Amino acid sequence: MTCYDRRDLGLLLLRLGTGGVLAAHGAQKLLGWFGGGGIEGTGKFMESVGYRPGKASATAAGLAEAGGGLLLAMGLATPAAGAAAAGAMAGAAAVHAPNGFFAQTGGYEYAASLGLTSAGLAVTGPGRLSLDHALGHAVNRGWMVPAAFAAAAAATAVVVGARVKRLREEKEGHQEALFEE
């Protein structure tokens, strides 16, 4: 019989908590569950904050959150799951960054916390109470961590960069009044 230690139990709790929250957020985007807008409503929101096309952006964010969250919770393909979730949270943090750090003022605190926890789990690994461990770490090899982060970072940089460029171009086209009347 295998004896699990505090590290395994701690990783299980982190995976279940973080993965569960991410999966719920993804379900809001994809399915409209838990008071979410579904693809239609989330797509409109994504358009309003500069992620276009909105429906495709909503689908990508929803899949990264729901898929990454479920995989993290199960401890399966942990490097890919954590990197995908961290990338999605980087995109969310970009939307909230103008509001400062704290969530109380609409800041990026919450997205940063979920993203950093997801990234930490991807790097640390899922522990022995996981499907990765049960399957002999077939989809949790050491080389997969940098590969997953490189792919997620590249995709996130392209998507967030396009959003920033789009917002800058829209702002440049709008002239504000020089003097108050």
From TrEMBL:
The chain crosses the membrane at residues 70-95, 143-162. It is found in: Cell membrane. The lineage of its organism: Bacteria, Bacillati, Actinomycetota, Actinomycetes, Kitasatosporales. It is a multi-pass membrane protein. The keyword DNA-binding does not apply. The keyword Cell membrane applies. Coiled coil: none annotated. Its main location: membrane. Keywords: Cell membrane, Membrane, Transmembrane, Transmembrane helix. It holds the Pfam family DoxX. This is DoxX family protein. It comes from Streptomyces anandii. It comes from the Bacteria. Signal peptide: none annotated. Belongs to the DoxX family.
